[in-house]
Amino acid sequence: MQANILNSNVLVLNKLWQPIEICSVRRAFCLLYLRHAQVVLKEGGSFYTFGFEEWRDFSQNSTVNTDIIKTITYKIRIPRIILLLFYDRFPPREVKFTRRNIYIRDQNTCQYCGKKFDSKDLNLDHVIPLSRGGKDTWENVVCSCVPCNLHKSNKTLTEAKMHLIRKPKKPSWRSFVKEGLIKIKEESWKDFLDIAYWNVELKQD
Ligand SMILES: [Zn+2]
Asked: What is the pTM of this model?
């Protein structure tokens, strides 16, 4: 349970309060602890920021029962938005090609059988196997459960008589963040994503 919470999504803002990426709760705590970031919390229409110690103290009186992590000595509420204190670059608007981001794109769903799994029960599969000239790209790498992965092995889709539930492609930054938004139903993200939506430079995905 706690491991799942630690892997859930946190919106990251640069020091100009622009959304730049989604990270895990685990990484967010790391950044907070190192004083590279602060928690952003919206209450009563205003935004407040907290350093790690302030956030820990604030969490003790929290009446929220969900989103709490208990350590041996204290409890701490998990952040949903963090603000980087030193990074002021403009949003990259590019979703990085990482294992975590492929899992988010595919919503932890095996792209062959269509079933949802825990991250630990999923693998990455090359649609065209590497040994057959397939590449490490958004279009060629998908989430796969272990049985589907074993069945497909080193075969192409035709050879394995399998098909993909949807065509894999590189996610646009906005659709990507929106999926995270839907998943955690975090109202407070909306403020930042709306700003990002209206200010983003238009280009073809
Ligand atoms: Zn499967």
From this structure: 0.61
